[in-house]
């Protein structure tokens, strides 16, 4: 509902336990405006529940971002800044029927429409990891089922370029 009501030029997602880095938004907006790209993404870091930075994760990805995601590689949702019109013209709204890592599935669905990504070489934020935290993101059956649903429901690039990856995932 929030995206449908949004009136700004950009959309960014941020979970309640994560933090944006200082000046990240201004750097991302500047990069989008100077390149004309649809989506900016940047580096991010893990921190613990005490906000102590543990490690830097993910820098620039070389190649097709959709292929990167098909391989199951995960990227923090706050690391992206989307042009609102890119999401709205594709009618890409959060699918509330997807219960499993919905943020990743949304980014996967957006990437399937072949938008132009640009890397912003700054830290965009901090992903808080708790000592009790467990992650299901590498769970093959749930992930594959969600991929299949998205692939069936989204307008996307020709699958022939991705058929080897999909075959290896057995979807």
Shape: globular
Cα Rg: 16 Å
Strand content: 15-25%
Tell me the structural class. Answer: alpha+beta
Which residues form runs of ≥5 with pLDDT under 50?
132-138
Descriptive account of the structure:
The chain has 171 residues and is an alpha+beta fold. The protein contains 7 helices and 6 strands, in the order αββαββαβααβαα. Strands 1, 2, 3, 4, 5 and 6 form a 6-stranded mixed sheet that branches. β3 and β4 form a beta hairpin. The model is unreliable at 132-138 (pLDDT under 50).
Lay out the secondary structure:
Elements: H1 2-5, E1 10-11, E2 19-20, H2 24-35, E3 39-47, E4 53-57, H3 65-70, E5 80-83, H4 84-89, H5 102-111, E6 117-128, H6 140-153, H7 163-169
Parallel strand pairs: 3-6
Antiparallel strand pairs: 1-5, 2-6, 3-4, 3-5
Descriptors for this entry?
171 residues; alpha+beta; 6-stranded mixed beta sheet
Q: What is the structure about, briefly put?
A:
With 171 residues, the protein is α+β, with helices and mostly antiparallel strands. It has helices spanning 2-5, 24-35, 65-70, 84-89, 102-111, 140-153, 163-169; strands at residues 10-11, 19-20, 39-47, 53-57, 80-83, 117-128.
């Amino acid at each position: 509902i929030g995206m449908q009501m949004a009136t700004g030029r950009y959309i960014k997602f941020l979970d309640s336990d994560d933090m944006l880095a200082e000046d990240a938004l201004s750097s991302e907006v500047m990069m989008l405006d100077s390149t004309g790209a649809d989506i900016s993404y940047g580096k991010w870091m893990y921190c613990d529940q005490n906000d102590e930075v543990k490690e830097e994760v993910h820098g620039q990805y070389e190649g097709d971002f959709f292929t990167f995601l098909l391989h199951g590689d995960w990227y923090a949702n706050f690391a992206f800044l989307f042009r609102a019109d890119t999401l709205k013209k594709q009618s890409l709204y959060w699918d509330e029927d997807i219960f499993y890592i919905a943020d990743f599935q949304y980014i996967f669905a957006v990437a399937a429409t072949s938008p132009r990504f640009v890397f912003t070489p700054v830290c965009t934020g901090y992903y808080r990891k708790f000592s009790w935290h467990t992650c299901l993101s590498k769970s093959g059956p749930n992930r594959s089922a969600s991929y299949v649903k998205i692939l069936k429901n989204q307008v996307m690039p020709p699958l022939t370029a991705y058929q080897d990856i999909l075959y290896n995932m057995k979807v």
